[in-house]
Amino acid sequence: MLIRWARICLVAAPLCVLIWGQPGADWASLQHSPAISAGTQIEAKTTDNKRYRGEFKAADTDALVLTTSNGEQRLARLTVSRVSVKKPGHRGRNTLIGLGIGAAAGLALGAVADARCTGKCVEGNTPLGKEAGTPLGLLIGAIIGVALPTGGWREVYRAP
Predict the structure, then answer these.
(1) CA quadruple 120, 126, 130, 132: dihedral positive or negative?
(2) Which of these, 133, 75, 146, 78, lies nearest to 106 by C-alpha position?
(3) Kind of pairing, strands 41-46 and 63-68?
(4) Do residues 138 and 100 touch, judged by C-beta distance below 8 A?
(5) Which CATH architecture does the domain made up of 23-86 adopt?
(6) What is the pTM of this model?
């Protein structure tokens, strides 16, 4: 029974990723997509390779309307080749994860260093590996968490 479910999952998982990862190929997906609503940051690329970034205002059967720094832009449906939505950033979440992982790694490495100390340690007679390793790991983990890339753009429409 378990082997049967494993086979089904192995076949279904790649198919789900392929289907879910595909952008909406029809123009109507812009009007009714839960990922795009009024005020959402979007980027539209036209057939002449111009990019327009701004807030989504509306999409009807003839055009895409967005508000840019230069004012309202109305792009004809036939000229729009691609529309992408700005994904939210997770810098705070990544920082907290980095803090936790870094502190745990520093504590573990400090414990290993303390266990190897037989009384004549670098820092004196008292082993301080855990006390020094934990904040150092915490700091390194936080820096890595802040530096991880976050956000980006996700394509929601591509012209056929």
Answers:
(1) negative
(2) 133
(3) unpaired
(4) no
(5) Roll (2.30)
(6) 0.56
